[in-house]
Amino acid sequence: PVLLNYGIEEARFTKPVYPGMTIGVRFTVKEKVDQEKRDAEDIAKGIVKFLVDVYDETGETVAIATILTMVKKLDQN
Question: For the chain, which end, N or C, has fewer CB atoms within 10 Å of the first or last residue's CB respectively?
Fold first, then answer.
């Protein structure tokens, strides 16, 4: 489960987008980073880095970014 959105890195518009255009978004996991528990009460969690590819109706990329999302691990042991 998502705990919070941690930030955005490397955001770039690669092509103009205009009103009325149809766009789509594709998310791909780039990296998973474990985070240490601060104490015994803390939950097991990590950061997932997603590559976000925004594309237009021709399939051409119009924007790209990396989104950082903190997630709760399914296995809490």
Answer: C
